[in-house]
Amino acid sequence: MTRNIAVIRGDGIGPEIVEQAVRVLDRVAALYGHTFTYTDVDMGGNAIDKWGDPLPREMLDKCLESDSVLLGAVGGPKWNDVPGPMRPEKGLLRLRAGMGVYSNNRPAKIWPQLAAASPLKQEIVDKGIDFLIVRELIGGIYFGKHETVSQNAEAVAIDELRYSESEIRRIGRIGFESARKRRKKLCSVEKSNVLDSSRLWKKVMHQLAEEYPDVELSDMLVDNCAMQIVKDPSQFDVIVTENMFGDILSDEASMITGSIGMIPSSSLGAGSRGLYEPIHGSAPDIAGMDIANPIGTILAAAMMLRYSFDLPQEADCIEAAVSAVLDSGYRTADILPKDAAGCKKAGCREMGSLIIENLRKG
Ligand code: NAD
After folding, report:
1. Between 6 and which of 1, 69, 147, 225 could a Cys-Cys bridge form, CB atoms 3.0 to 4.6 Å apart?
2. What is the pLDDT of residues 215-228, one digit of tens each?
3. Calculated CA dihedral for residues 172, 175, 180, 183, nearest 10 degrees
């Protein structure tokens, strides 16, 4: 397979962590006989410095011409005083809008080797945590009409929550397709006991289920889901939900797994092209020190192989290599236990090299 990947190294630790992910992709390509080529794209603070714009049009075009986009992170204190529309983060928002990505997908996976970092009780963690939250990204209450009016001599604030059938159907499909690539269980989360938008959500999900007989669909109210994520997260495979519920549940899910440096995410739209990135920011406090954890970005590259390029074995190969390195006790500073018992400290590049050494064709 030949694929071109737009690579946005970004700011802060971005270039260091993306470099490791690219090295891993190169090794996977060599093992499995693929060709991955890379197109460098400037975005964020470095693009402001170079071009006076956090995402110049030609940079967005390079992303749109690619098969998928790999991003480190953007932003940092150097650009704090830049005016609103030119801020580094605006580049990211424009990229998401330009790519038309309406689905944000975040895995919540606990690595048994890092179980002690989870705030959950050992007996809950021991049952395993490995699920994916598919969140609708560009609809719902965050994108409805917001207004504050004066009524009966007091302020009244109104936020509109609307979803159309087609908006629900397209995110539902991402949920079903993702479940198909995993353990084939999809939990649709809503608040249908109260909200009309949720009743429509539930109806559309059940219509879609007829097209996916191999996927087991269940429904759960969002308040119950928030409880179940901490009580028994092992029950979930894929959760699909609307924008605001997904915003809250995905942050809850990332907390139960331990380190922010380990978690990847993807954003998908209509085609197979996606935007893949770690969930953390540019960590300016540790930039250039070769101590950042590159695993979230390396796992984002694995997600790209699984969900955009349909290469599940290659994705499994990367995840198995990460697991093997953790088994052998190597840890970057952010996941090193306080007493460091039985662990060996590794820098960013060294962690990349260790993962590459452990890549084995399945
Ligand atoms: P952050 O995620 O960058 O850092 C929070 C803490 O986690 C810091 O102590 C940092 O050192 C640590 N950390 C983060 N990633 C790490 C890694 N891979 N390895 C080891 N430690 C890691 O959040 P912040 O400090 O709030 O934001 C810094 C900058 O990043 C800001 O300019 C913010 O706007 C930007 N940001 C960008 C994105 C993105 O590009 N998608 C996302 C969030 C924040």
Report:
1. 69
2. 999 999 999 999 99
3. -140
Closest CA to 177 of 232, 132, 222, 140: 132
**What is the CA(77)–ligand 1 centre distance, in A?**
11
Q: Is the CB of 104 under 6 A from ligand 1?
A: no
Of 154, 161, 334, give the one whose Cα is nearest residue 261.
334
State pTM to two decimals. Answer: 0.90
Q: pLDDT class for 257, splitting at 50, 70, 90? A: confident
- Planar angle of CA 51, 57, 60, nearest 5 degrees: 105
Cα separations in angstroms, 93 against 18, 54, 66, 165: 20, 10, 18, 25
| pLDDT tens per residue, range 161-178 | 999 999 999 999 999 999
Task: Determine if ligand 1 sits within 6 Å of the CB of residue 334.
Answer: yes
Residues sharing a CB contact under 8 Å with residue 214, sequence separation 6 or more, in sequence order: 180, 184
In terms of phi and psi (left: phi > 0; alpha: psi -120 to 50; beta: otherwise), the region of 324 is: alpha
